[in-house]
Structure formats: C-alpha cells, structure tokens
Specification:
Elements (H helix, E strand, L loop, with lengths): L21 H25 L3 H23 L9 H12 L4 H28 L7 H32 L1
Helix pairs in contact: 1-2, 1-3, 1-4, 1-5, 2-5, 3-4, 4-5
Length: 165
C-alpha cells in the first residue's frame, strides 16, 4: 500500500480489512467522492489562488465521473459521515480568500489520501481476475482512479506546502 503521503491527522483512515468486493469499495468511496464534489463546487466560486481553482476544476470532473461509476456499481446514495460533513462545513463556512484556499486544500489532502489508500487496499485484496462483470468494472475503475487519487493527493500536498510558505 502507498504510505509516502499519508494524511497527517484529521479524518479517519479507511478500514480496509473488509474491502474485497466492488460493492464494499463503492460503499466506502462514494461518500468521500461526494465530499470532493461539494467542496470543489464551492471552490470554483470561492478559491482565489489560480492553482487552487485549477485543482478544484479537475476535482469536480473527477468526482462527478467517480460518483457516476460508483452508482453503476450499486453504491448507495452518497452519505457523508460526520467527519466528512464537518470538513465540508469548515470549507463552505470559510470566507473567500486565503482561509478558504487553506481549508479546501487541507480537506483535499486528507480526502485523497483516504481515497488513494482505500483504492490501493481494494486492488490488493480483491480478486485480480474476477469472472463477475461488476467486479471487473470495479477493479477497472479502481485501477484508473488510483492514478488520479495519487496524483491529486500529491498536487494538493504541494499546494498546501506553498500556501504555508
């Protein structure tokens, strides 16, 4: 599993011990994808740094695509847990400007570390060549999503360091 850019506190790490099926993966991932969608929608209006706004645009596209495929995999309607809801409230309640940019980027760092680690664990523990079409689709989504989640975690961490500098 990828551990080089783990979250530094905040939201809980994924419980990856039982993520072996596409349904289990989808159920854990969809709430986080919804958090990213909602936060990125707010960032499109409130972000002031060009790099934060650019990342928000990519995040919005990613979240919409991932949510769509997760729904096709049978994930329940997105429900954010209390930690994710709290993170979204912190973002949406932040004033436009540096405070908003910091809150949004911090949430993206944590959220993408969670999604990256969850996705890597699913790919490690699930059947590598499933016969079931839904399981194949889940692995295909996870394979592509892992690249994006890893990249966006790295970009969000870079922006976070730049904002703090």
């Amino acid at each position: 599993m990828h551990t080089d850019q783990r979250s530094r506190g905040g939201m809980a790490k994924p419980d990856v011990s039982n993520v072996r099926t596409a349904q289990q993966y989808a159920t854990q991932a969809i709430g986080r994808a919804e958090l990213s969608r909602a936060a990125s929608q707010a960032a499109m209006e409130k972000a002031t740094r060009p790099d934060v706004r650019e990342l928000a645009g990519y995040e919005l596209m990613e979240a919409k695509a991932v949510i769509s495929v997760l729904r096709e995999l049978g994930a329940p309607a997105p429900q954010m847990g209390p930690e994710a809801r709290s993170a979204l409230e912190m973002i949406t309640n932040s004033s436009k400007g540096n405070a908003f940019d910091r809150a949004y980027i911090a949430a993206q760092c944590e959220n993408h570390a969670f999604l990256r680690d969850l996705t890597a664990a699913y790919l490690e523990t699930s059947e590598p060549r499933p016969a079931d079409p839904q399981e194949r689709q889940g692995r295909q989504l996870a394979t592509v999503a892992l690249c994006t989640f890893t990249e966006h975690a790295a970009v969000a961490n870079r922006i976070s360091r730049e904002i703090r500098a």
